Every structure is written in structure tokens, then in C-alpha cells.
Amino acid sequence: EVQLVESGGGLVKPGGSLRLSCAGSGFTFANAWMNWIRQAPGKGLEWVGRIKSKSDSGTTDYAAPVKGRFTISRGDSKNTVFLHMNSLKIEDTAVYYCATDLGVGATSYFDFWGQGTLVTVSS
Amino acid sequence: DIQMTQSPSSLSASVGDRVNITCQASQDISNCINWYQQQPGKAPNLLIYRASNLQTGVPSRFSGSGSGTHFTFTISSLQPEDIGKYYCQQYENVPYTFGQGTKLEIK
After folding, report:
1. Distance between CA A96 and CA A49 in Å, rounded?
2. B49 has which bridge partners?
């Protein structure tokens, strides 16, 4: 059974930093492209960014609102993906989900999701 | 960025009704669209991928169609457990983008 468990959320002041973790099990983690998606309170879903598998270059892509402030990395030996968040803004307040992309070929989709971790940016 | 315009933003229907949700892309995305359901208090769940393919384990009353810029998601016979919010999402280009969601309620 595929499981994704996020951790690391909490309350942080504007301008602060936080690191989220997402531990995966039940699938070949090293082969998965991993995504972070967030949802502000009462709002819709917003893709934050992704990291490809190392065999597919391991490169990252980010949404414009977080580019230059957020960094995604992965530790395949521990089946974990990280979201490093710096220079946090009030508008970054959201539930952050990690999600796998186990799509084949040119097909990409978020097939498994974690339960989410809440990040609150407030003074 | 590709904009995904989803409609309606909310709808109320009776058990057994046929329900349609549409998504319009701001440019041609071929069939690179997925549909998700988010039940209250839960993470989203993939229902349809690549426009019309049913994800494993998803009931066959859910379906998707369309290509290019216009897409439709259908529930053939609405069930009480189908309440929640539904989102389309394109993966033709990064950044991936979602529609604003459709809130589905039972009359």
C-alpha cells in the first residue's frame, strides 16, 4: 500500500524558514517524480513544484510565487522528499501536500497524496 | 501559464442525476488533463487521467471526455458519497495548473 506522510508544518513568522518532509513507502521511491501542492484555507489547489527522479535528471521546477524562495530536494536512501521554504510570506499559509507522479511516458498525474501538513505564517 | 477555467463553481443535484462539469483551457493542451475529487477534510483523489482514463478502483459512473481546449467530467448517476469539490488539472506545461474547483452538493 502506498503511503506518504508529511511532517514539519507549524507556525512561523513572516520572513522565517521551515522545512517540510514527506516520507514515502509502498512504491519504488527512487523512480517517482515527487510534487508539492498547497491549499490555502478555504481555497483551491495550487501546484508548488516538483523534483524528477534522478534517472530522469533529478531537476526541479517551481511555480512563480515560490521560485527563488522554495527548494525541493530528495533523499532516495530514506525515501524522503523535502520542501525547504525561506522568506515565508503570509500568503504562503496553507496545507501542504506531497504527491507522487508515477505516470508513464508523457502522462503525468498526482496518483497518491499525503494527508497534508499545515503551515501558518503569522506574526 | 495555462489558465484552466472550470464551471460551474458550485452545483446542487439529486441522487441519480447526471452531473457535468466543464473545464476550458487557455490554450491547446491536447488530452493532458486530469480530474480529482476532494471530499471535505481529505486530500484530493485522482479520478480520471489523460482526459478519459479511469484511475484504478474508481467507480465507472465517473468519466471524462474532450481534447484541445474543452473538457467535460461526468458523473452518470450521482451518489451521496460523491459530495465534495472537483478539480481539473493540466499537465501539458509546467507550471501545472488547476481549475478553481466545483463544489458539488446533494439536493
Report:
1. 11
2. B53
User: Chain A window 16-55: which residues touch B at a Cβ cutoff of 8 Å?
Assistant: 35, 44-47, 50
The reply to whether residue B32 touches residue A63, judged by beta carbons under 8 angstroms, is no
- Residues A104 and A117: their CA atoms lie apart, in Å, by 28
Contacts of A97 (CB under 8 A, 6+ apart): A6, A36, A37, A38, A39, A113, A114, A115, A116, B43, B44
Distance from CA of B79 to the nearest CA of A (A): 23
- Long-range contacts of residues B7-10, Cβ cutoff 8 Å, at least 24 apart: B7/B102, B8/B102, B9/B100, B9/B101, B9/B102, B9/B103, B10/B102, B10/B103, B10/B104, B10/B105
B84 touches chain A (CB under 8 A): no
Instruction: Give the rounded distance of the alpha carbon of B23 from its chain centre.
Output: 8
The whole-number mean pLDDT for each consecutive block of 10 residues of chain B, a chain of 107 residues, reads 98 98 98 97 97 97 98 98 97 97 97
Predicted pLDDT at A38: 98
Q: Residue B73 has what pLDDT?
A: 98
> Cβ of A110 and B34 within 8 Å?
yes
Is residue B105 within 8 Å of residue B79, measured between CB atoms?
Answer: no
